[in-house]
Write a structure and sequence with these properties.
Layout (H helix, E strand, L loop, with lengths): L1 H39 L8 H8 L3 H13 L3 E4 L3 E4 L10 E6 L7 H13 L4 E6 L4 H13 L4 E4 L11 H9 L4 E4 L10 E5 L1 H14 L5 E6 L3 H16 L9 E4 L1 H10 L3 H9 L6 E4 L2 H13 L9 E6 L2 H5 L5 E4 L2 H16 L7 E3 L2 E3 L10
Parallel strand pairs: 3-4, 3-5, 5-6, 6-7, 7-13, 8-9, 8-10, 10-11, 11-12
Antiparallel strand pairs: 1-2, 12-14
Helix pairs in contact: 1-3, 2-3, 4-13, 5-6, 7-8
Length: about 375
């Protein structure tokens, strides 16, 4: 009799436990629906535990178990003293993709940058899909239209020919209306002032190289920059601003500009005609040259040698980027070093904050000057 009664009590207890287990899972499912609805309306914060107890008529223990389950699934995060917030992740993994548009995935800075962004996002449950625009506006549009049909959770984009008018801005505006976070990388479109951008401080970099050359005695300095890229425009602006401030503003005849088409011909066919023309038209009477990046500087040093000019004996050459090409040249090149790991960290952080509707702001990363053999003091 006693034993039978004991078994009966145990059976009731087991039923109660199973009922409690089913209850918190049911609540978790209902909260998942609530999160999905709230995210569509831009709401990330969940109601408090007390509010959830009243709203769903359950105990605080059931609420805490449900929240713990959602936390384990990566759907929410808890901030001490603030409450629970939706992470922006999808329950089944569908829609947890972040799209990354870059100009050229084979370019020297991209492998470690992309890998870092992918790792940082994966740590929070997101998958990175990479698309190469080849710096072509038409290709950029194809990708954006595809993404509008199968909308990712967010977009990180490196603009195409950012200094030129772009017909694809309406696509980016559509993503904004869909409340999909957008983070620009390296530069941005000036017609989209609302977009967050993570980039190097190109203006200050140009100013810094001007200062460095001035300290080495160079006052007759030429520059070669990319005309359809805002990075080239800003680097020129910073460099020319220093030269103006120091009383040695560079005349237009010593400034050269090249296009994306000329860069493509250089990379694909080793067509260096625009470099040779620059040497003969813009470089005479100059003792130093600032190049857009070390790819241009690498090929420029070769062309200078063909023209009978040696670096740094006859002319100093400095540049931006500090890729392997700065070390590969037969004269190691003085350069401003970019910081791909820092860029990746800030880019991923901006995207993750935006996904949680937290403030995210544009940031400029300072350059680091690396002095090498291509750089010599001018002796009067």
């Amino acid at each position: 009799m006693y034993r039978s009664h004991k078994l009966e009590i145990a059976g009731v207890n087991m039923k109660g436990i199973r009922h409690m287990a089913a209850k918190y899972k049911q609540l978790a499912a209902r909260l998942t629906d609530l999160i999905s609805t709230n995210l569509q309306n831009g709401i990330h914060k969940l109601p408090t535990e007390a509010e959830l107890c009243r709203q769903y008529q359950v105990s605080r223990q059931t609420v805490r178990q449900a929240l713990s389950l959602l936390n384990a699934q990566g759907l929410i995060t808890t901030r001490q003293g603030s409450g629970s917030y939706a992470t922006g992740l999808s329950e089944d993994g569908f829609g947890n993709t972040i799209a990354l548009l870059i100009r050229n995935e084979q370019e020297h800075i991209y492998p470690e940058l992309v890998n870092d962004i992918r790792t940082l996002l994966a740590d929070k449950g997101y998958t990175l899909s990479v698309y190469s625009t080849k710096d072509q506006v038409s290709r950029e549009r194809e990708i954006l239209e595809k993404l509008l049909q199968d909308t990712p959770r967010g977009i990180i984009a490196e603009p195409c020919k950012s200094a030129l008018p772009n017909p694809n801005l309406n696509c980016y505006e559509k993503f904004r209306k869909l409340e999909r976070p957008l983070v620009f990388l390296h530069s941005s479109y000036t017609a989209l002032p609302w977009a967050v951008c993570i980039k190097n401080d190109d203006y200050s970099g140009g100013y810094l190289l001007g200062q460095h050359l001035s300290a080495r005695g160079h006052t007759r300095v030429a520059g070669l920059f990319k005309i359809d890229d805002m990075r080239g425009v800003e680097r020129y602006h910073g460099f020319q601003s220093f030269m103006r401030d120091s009383g040695h503003m560079v005349p237009d005849c010593h400034i050269g500009w090249y296009t994306s088409a000329e860069l493509n011909r250089l990379e694909d066919k080793q067509d260096t005609r625009f470099l040779s023309e620059f040497i003969h038209r813009q470089l005479p009477d100059c003792s130093a040259l600032i190049c857009q990046n070390d790819e241009i500087a690498y090929w420029m040093i070769k062309e200078l040698s063909y023209a009978g000019l040696e670096v740094p004996q006859d002319i100093t050459v400095v540049c931006f980027a500090d890729s392997y090409l700065s070390e590969l040249s037969h004269v190691r090149i003085t350069t401003l070093a970019h910081k791909p790991h820092e860029t990746a960290r800030r880019t991923a952080d901006c995207m993750l904050r935006s996904l949680q509707r937290l403030p995210a702001v544009s940031q400029e990363i300072p350059w680091e000057l690396i002095v090498r053999e291509s750089d010599a003091a001018l002796h009067s």
